[in-house]
């Protein structure tokens, strides 16, 4: 039985980093001359102004013509190049879907499609909110779908996905990116990770040194390509990796006090952590899930939080290992509940014949409205820390009032989950 991957996290409020993706792409391009960059008239907004400045001869401004941009990317990939294509998530998936299928996915070309402003992180209304991008990309054969949580993972995912065979879709938060994971975190493209609080980060831990937000984005040399990291020698070739057996936890790896709400004595050899509720989350929902785990733990609910950065291929081994040892499962995603992480987890549980109460947090088959800010939308459409707490409390049929999630203050340059 394989060991479950575990990763420590910092405590909120989180410090933030600017342009971790843009810096990581420049670093990759320095090492990989086949990398080229395409922009759909959102160069600065997608952080690739940094690439344009350093590699103008490898930069293509495709304009507001996303279908044509994807076609260009497919042609470049056929010539041995590795195109990274950029726009807001809704523009780079919904508009050019036919071209993605026929010019990129069907011939299994190494085109990396990067969509910013996922879900309702944009206040711009249905025309700008990528609420179904994961569902669209997940349905395309051979497409890898990634939704990273913070600046640390963003800095590592660029190099990690460079060696993934076939096309990749990456969705990224825009603007100030929180640093949830410490500097020694290693993103995995084949393993979901059980999260635990780092002891020294329980109070104000976001201010500890290191991490992805230092010195303009913390793109460490080598990115995710390090021994023992997310990508072993040969890169993140994921064929069949989601079907690895097992899902245990290595002997002796005790959970630190207060670790992600796990309070039942820690880990035992070959098993997942036992819990009342497992929170399986991705992307921007990792931070509120961690905050919810603290609230639930204080109310006596044993909670395990699992970061699932790769929606397809799903790490079914970890999902099933954690779900088997949990009374109930809750998924949370900044996306419609149809076709995304919640659907992928439901499929895995059903196909394994594992009966567990499952609740899916996300947009409930609705378009979102426009608003002045994203926190308002997260509150209106049920994506907050309190909504996660409410859902976990309800699915467990706990008596008494639902615990309240405190409002976490954040200074300028800091990020606190809604």
Task: Note the main attributes of this structure.
single chain; 418 residues; alpha/beta; seven-stranded mixed beta sheet; six-stranded mixed beta sheet; globular
Indicate the multimeric state.
Answer: single chain
Number of strands: 18
> Major sheet, described briefly?
7 strands, mixed
Q: Rg to the nearest angstrom?
A: 20 Å
End-to-end CA span: 37 Å
Beta fraction of the residues?
15-25%
What percent of the residues sit in helical stretches (DSSP H or I)? 25-40%
Number of helices: 12
Average pLDDT value?
A: 85
Provide the structure class: alpha/beta
Basic shape: globular
What is the element string, with H for helices and E for strands?
EEEHEHEHEHHEHEHEEEEEHEEHEHEHHE
Adjacency order of strands in the biggest sheet = 5-4-6-7-9-8-15
Give the uncertain stretches in residue-range form: 199-270
């Amino acid at each position: 039985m394989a060991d479950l991957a575990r990763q420590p996290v910092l405590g909120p409020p989180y410090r933030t980093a600017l342009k971790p993706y843009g810096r990581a792409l420049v670093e990759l391009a320095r090492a990989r001359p086949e990398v080229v960059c395409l922009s759909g008239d959102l160069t600065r907004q997608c952080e690739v102004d940094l690439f344009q400045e350093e590699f103008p001869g490898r930069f293509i401004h495709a304009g507001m013509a996303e279908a044509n941009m994807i076609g260009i990317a497919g042609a470049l990939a056929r010539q041995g190049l590795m195109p990274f294509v950029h726009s807001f998530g809704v523009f780079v998936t919904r508009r050019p879907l036919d071209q993605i299928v026929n010019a990129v996915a069907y011939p299994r070309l190494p085109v990396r499609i990067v969509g910013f402003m996922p879900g309702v992180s944009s206040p711009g209304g249905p025309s700008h909110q990528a609420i179904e991008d994961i569902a669209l990309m997940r349905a395309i054969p051979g497409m890898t779908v990634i939704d990273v949580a913070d600046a640390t993972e963003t800095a590592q995912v660029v190099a990690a996905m460079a060696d993934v065979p076939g096309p990749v879709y990456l969705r990224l938060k825009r603007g100030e990116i929180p640093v949830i994971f410490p500097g020694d975190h290693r993103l995995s493209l084949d393993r979901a990770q059980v999260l635990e609080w780092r002891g020294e980060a329980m109070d104000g831990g976001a201010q500890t040194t290191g991490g992805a937000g230092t010195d303009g984005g913390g793109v460490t040399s080598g990115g995710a390509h390090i021994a023992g990291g997310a990508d072993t020698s040969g890169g993140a070739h994921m064929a069949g990796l989601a079907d690895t057996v097992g899902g245990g936890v290595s002997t002796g790896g005790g959970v630190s006090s207060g670790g992600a709400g796990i309070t039942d004595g820690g880990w035992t050899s070959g098993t997942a952590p036992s819990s009342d509720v497992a929170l399986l989350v991705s992307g921007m929902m990792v931070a509120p899930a961690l905050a919810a785990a603290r609230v639930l733990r204080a109310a006596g609910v044993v909670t395990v939080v699992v970061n699932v950065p790769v929606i397809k291929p799903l790490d079914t081994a970890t999902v099933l290992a954690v779900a088997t040892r949990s009374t109930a499962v809750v998924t949370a995603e900044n996306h419609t509940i149809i076709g995304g992480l919640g659907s992928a987890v439901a499929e895995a549980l059903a196909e394994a014949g594992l009966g567990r109460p499952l609740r899916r947090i996300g947009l409930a088959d609705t378009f979102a409205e426009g608003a002045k800010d994203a926190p308002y939308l997260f509150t209106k459409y049920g994506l907050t820390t309190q909504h996660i707490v409410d859902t976990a409390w309800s699915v467990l049929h706990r008596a008494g009032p639902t615990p309240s999630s405190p409002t976490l203050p954040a200074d300028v340059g800091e990020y606190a989950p809604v």
